[in-house]
């Protein structure tokens, strides 16, 4: 569903992504791991054009999204993003957060948008929070709302950038559990994470980035039992 060909991204003189090629199939769950500063967020952000690649091609469902005529808004509807710091709208209730884009961007009727949002809130275990404001929620609850809000746009793929890194330890599991249940629904997921246990259990593939290069692209069992690069070995020794 997502195909990346010889992707490069530079910020001025800083070459952040170097010659990355990979494919993410429909329904696949891919974990992206690697040291801080290795380019994980930049890679993810290129996939829905929050960053514009310097060179290379990215195809989503066969469409070259790096082409000039690409409609960025359509791509972002189709490929949602969940951030470390939730990015909920503070002046809107949970339900308003969730129905805003479906109504404004997709033109979904208000009542229908509300009904779908309630279904999604049930799925993430937060139906009773529909009418509260984000400040009344714990970090774990905020992130579950943020995930539900992304799902409200009915994206084909969802990108997660360290979705549990800003959470207190006791809230990590409730968010990972929601992501785990999502992984079984057939939605395509790319997840930047430092949760090695989760990556090992839930991901179909592991991408290991180091200094902007894709050093490993393997199944979790291959990666965790026998990483081929010295960098990945060192990284895992620190993480596990
Ligand atoms: P990671 O998510 O793996 O920690 P990032 O993709 O955030 O890595 O960053 C990779 C490198 O690119 C870092 O050196 C970072 O400082 C740099 N970088 C990221 N975004 C920008 C930007 N908008 N402008 C300049 N440099 C950036
Ligand atoms: Mg990052």
Descriptive overview:
It is a single chain. Helix content is 38%, strand content 25%. The protein contains 9 helices and 10 strands. The protein has helices at residues 40-47, 72-78, 94-104, 110-123, 139-151, 169-183, 196-202, 220-225, 230-239; strands at 2-11, 14-24, 29-33, 55-60, 63-64, 79-82, 157-161, 188-192, 205-210, 213-218. The strands form 2 sheets. Strands 6-7-8-3-9-10 form a 6-stranded mixed sheet, sandwiched between helices. A 4-stranded antiparallel sheet has the order 2-1-4-5, with helices on one face. 41% of the residues are buried. The model has no long low-confidence stretch (mean pLDDT 96). Residues 40-41, 161 line the site of magnesium ion (MG).
Radius of gyration: 18 Å
Number of helices: 9
Count the strands?
10
User: What structural category characterises the helix and strand content?
Assistant: alpha/beta
Principal-axis shape: globular
Strand order of the largest sheet: 6-7-8-3-9-10
Helix content: 25-40%
Pattern of helices and strands: EEEHEEHEHHHEHEHEEHH
Q: In percent, how much strand structure appears in the residues?
A: 25-35%
Name the hetero compounds present: adenosine-5'-diphosphate, magnesium ion
Average pLDDT taken over every residue: 96
Largest sheet properties: 6 strands, mixed
Poorly predicted regions are none
Question: Cα distance, first to last residue?
Answer: 31 Å
Protein name: Amino acid ABC transporter ATP-binding protein
Organism: Tumebacillus lipolyticus
Domain ABC transporter: 2-236
InterPro entries: AAA+_ATPase, ABC_ATPase_HisP-typ, ABC_transporter-like_ATP-bd, ABC_transporter-like_CS, MetN_ABC_transporter-like, P-loop_NTPase
């Amino acid at each position: 569903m997502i195909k990346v060909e010889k992707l490069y991204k530079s910020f001025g003189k800083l070459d952040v992504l170097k010659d990355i090629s990979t494919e993410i199939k429909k329904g696949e769950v891919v974990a992206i791991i690697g040291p801080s500063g290795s380019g994980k967020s930049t890679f993810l952000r290129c996939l829905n054009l929050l960053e514009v690649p310097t060179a290379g091609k990215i195809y989503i469902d066969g469409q070259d999204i790096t082409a000039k005529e690409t409609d960025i808004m359509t791509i972002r509807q189709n490929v949602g993003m969940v951030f470390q710091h939730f990015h909920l709208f503070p002046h809107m209730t949970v339900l308003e957060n969730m129905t805003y884009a479906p109504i404004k961007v997709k033109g979904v009727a208000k009542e229908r948008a509300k009904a779908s949002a309630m279904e999604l809130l049930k799925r993430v275990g937060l139906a009773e929070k529909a009418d509260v404001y984000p400040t009344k929620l714990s970090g774990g609850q905020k992130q579950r709302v943020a995930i539900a809000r992304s799902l409200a746009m009915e994206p084909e793929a969802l990108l997660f950038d360290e979705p549990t890194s800003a959470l207190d330890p006791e809230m990590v599991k409730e968010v990972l559990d929601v992501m785990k249940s999502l992984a079984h629904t057939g939605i395509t997921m790319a997840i930047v994470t430092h949760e090695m246990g989760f990556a090992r259990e839930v991901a179909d593939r592991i991408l290991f980035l180091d200094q902007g290069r894709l050093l490993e692209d393997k199944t979790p069992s291959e990666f965790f039992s026998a990483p081929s690069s010295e960098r990945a070995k060192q990284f895992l020794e620190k993480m596990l």
